[in-house]
Amino acid sequence: MDTHLSDDAVAPVPGDYKSDVKPIWCPGCGDYSVLAGITRAMANMGLKREDTVVVSGIGCSSRIPAYTSVYGYHTVHGRSLAVASGVKLARPELNVLIFGGDGDGFSIGGNHFLHACRRNVDMTYIVMDNQVYGMTKGQASPTTEADWCESKLTPEGPGVNPIQPVALALACGANFVARGFSNDPNQVARLIVEGVKHPGFSVIHILSPCVTFRPEQRGWKSTVHPYGREPTDDPNEAMRAVLEDDGFGLGIFLAGNRRPFQPESTATRSIAQIEEGFAV
Amino acid sequence: MTVDSVTIALVGSGGAGAMTAGQMLLDAAANVGWYGLMSRSTGPQIRGGEAAALVRLSPTPVHGPGDRFDIIIAFDWQNVERFAAELPLSDKSVIITDPSQGEVPAVLAASGARQMELPIKELAGRIPGGRVNMVGLGAVAATIGLPRAGIDAVIQKALGKKGDAAVQASNAGIDAGAKEAAGWNLGLELAAPNKNGATRWNISGNEAAGLGALKGGVKFCAAYPITPATEILEWLAPNLAKTGGKLVQAEDELASIAMCLGASFSGVPSITATAGPGLSLMTECIGLGVASETPVVIVDVQRGGPSTGIPTKSEQSDLNIAVYGLHGDAPHLVVGPTSIGDCLFTTQWAVHLAEALQTVAIVLSDQAMGQSRAVIDKPEDAPYTAKRLLATDLGGEGKYLRYANTESGISPVAIPGMPGGEHTADGLEHAENALPSSQASDHQKQLDKRLRKLTSYDYGDAWADIEGEGEIAVVTWGSATGPSREAVRRLEAAGTKVRLVAIRLISPVQPAKLAAALDGVTKVLVVEQTHGAQFHKFLRGHYDLPGAVSVFSRPGPLPIRAREVHETLLSLI
């Protein structure tokens, strides 16, 4: 998107984009680092706070808007992408980012994710994946392994295969798809900057451990690895490569060339002229 | 001898052109100065199947369907049994039937209506490019005394682009039908039109609602198609674009309302339109609009329910969900237009109120208004536009209170682009500074504020249409107003005075105003179109109705006719 750079004489710093509100997250939650990455990205781009809107649904990571100092809308579970699309379609000059988790984005909000990808409105979706519903105290999410047996709701495991967010995003037509890891907020910031600057709908999938309900995810730091390929603008090539990825490759999978969806309109008629059409 | 109202059904299976003929009949009648109303009866099928254009014409404004059909003209009798109940007849009625299509079905013939045979298909067949619906239109025009000039203008407008051959074929068909009917002398000539010089409009309720949105200042619509509301969205698509607004098709109703909230959060007045199933899906986000104080307007064109119900037929049974459907204590606006033309005013007013009060307004139209077309006097311009109270003094960094607990309950809002107004609007309960709070004092304060802004607002006279005087009053709403009004006028003409109160502002309730409107009343008749008497129970829950209260309430799909209200009133006198 065309970013609206701050015209302050002094270069903005990440702290300029933080509010005074203390996050509700558990100590050690990956989302702290993602928040740090977000504010670094905003400072790096020098986004004008008043021209920036962050939208979220419901869940631990969806609390982020109140922790920033830009305009925010903390909405209902699963609908953040639709709300954000309304913001951007109505006011294309605004910078629009969306924050949320795997349950919010891929379960209750799954249909909106599909259509946000194919609609390709110029906005950036940062989805923090911890493979669990944390706010409701540890149930399986759509990215949880089929045999994860730690939830009282599904003591034998959810029994269904997890979805692969990056592959899903590519299949649905997202124009920019990347993956980051919360342990490296600088890399998270870089990916967000790339995503925001890339025209169209950008999906940044961020592995962000839940240390409370998925403590084993602390081990992700030794599981992740560089994706190891140059970003492609060819969705077919990106999809073939992603299907061989183990879900822990970090980097940019696709930086595509699809045109963003942004209907334009200019007033050419007065309402009085339109009314004349009803006259007998 | 003339009649002062004539009601005509043009019946045929898909492809016969009954709807086209009905539309041309209404347009031609409007051209010569008659008022009119045309509703459609169609089944759920996409193409084909049974269809009827139901037209009522009069020299005076038409408020609702006629008590019975004076004329039925059938191009064929396929499937007519399925909607015969919608075609009430009497022995004074006339059935125009083509002998080649078989006998008049017993269900209609049993009325004792006169039968006039017209070889429609044969007459059309003699004309190159001739069509049965034009022959029928000619016969109807001759029967009611519709001047030929009115039809000529319609044909020229509808077919002029198709060339002379098409125009000639239509004219020949009309002439053939008219010639046959000329000698019938059925006594159904409509009284001469009264051209009062005022501009008249030919408009549907759904178009009027769309126009009301534009006039209210709406610049964004997110749309998901649903019968019988789709025409609002299809009308808005080009007309929003022409006036600098935007319409986007959403993936479902969950998204359409959410997109509207997003657009509105960014400061752009927004609307969506739907029917009961869509409204059900939207309720969670409607609550978000209430809690986050983000204005939005939803037009619900009601249809038969529950569930998928009867999508193409009218009912007023979404009242309960519109008023009570949200979880939590979520006061919001519910308004109902009282006529096809009033869909304009009420939608425009709803946009104004939603924006002024920073809340959600649900406009309860219905299929009977939305998909019917009326010839009416051009509605007067109303002064209502979208005007949100914007924050002007943002008080320095971090000082802005998005949900300030003001006396009016309306908090000045900062929208994106305003430096210093940055805040996170929230569906979580919040403190005045918008930060989430589960404290009892904040919850109480914000609940009070969101209720107070609605209850302390001055809605003026538009809260209801109040007509007439007398000790008997009809209290009604929505499309039940039209037949109620006609019934009241009939009693007036016979020397009995009856009041009519049609409540436009359903919620918040206006007890003092209704008490004043019903001062001196000893008998109340509540008129509505639901199975469960939802409106009556709503009134009982919020108002003290004076005297003896009776209820006329029945479900769709049959429209409420003036005769039914009239007879009920007579039984009360």
TrEMBL record, chain A:
SUPFAM superfamilies: Thiamin diphosphate-binding fold (THDP-binding)
Keyword Hydrolase among record annotations: no
Source organism of the structure: Azospirillum isscasi
Cofactor annotation: [4Fe-4S] cluster
Domain Thiamine pyrophosphate enzyme TPP-binding: 58-206
InterPro entries named among the record's database cross-references: 2-oxoacid:Fd_oxidoreductase, OFOB, THDP-binding, TPP_enzyme_TPP-bd
Pfam short name (any one): TPP_enzyme_C
Keywords linked to the UniProt accession: Oxidoreductase
Protein name per Swiss-Prot or TrEMBL: 2-oxoacid:ferredoxin oxidoreductase subunit beta
Domain of life: Bacteria
UniProtKB/TrEMBL annotation, chain B:
Keywords: Oxidoreductase
Signal peptide, first to last residue: none
Coiled-coil region(s): none
Pyruvate/ketoisovalerate oxidoreductase catalytic domain: residues covered: 14-175
The keyword Oxidoreductase is annotated on this UniProt entry: yes
Superkingdom of this protein's organism: Bacteria
InterPro entries listed in its UniProt record: 2-oxoacid/accept_OxRdtase_asu (IPR022367), Pyruvate:ferred/Flavod_OxRd (IPR050722), Pyrv/ketoisovalerate_OxRed_cat (IPR019752), Pyrv_Fd/Flavodoxin_OxRdtase_N (IPR002880), Pyrv_flavodox_OxRed_cen (IPR002869), THDP-binding (IPR029061), Transketo_C/PFOR_II (IPR009014)
Domain Pyruvate flavodoxin/ferredoxin oxidoreductase pyrimidine binding: 212-446
Entry annotated with the keyword Methyltransferase: no
A Pfam family: POR_N
Official protein name in the record: 2-oxoacid:acceptor oxidoreductase subunit alpha
Originating organism: Azospirillum isscasi
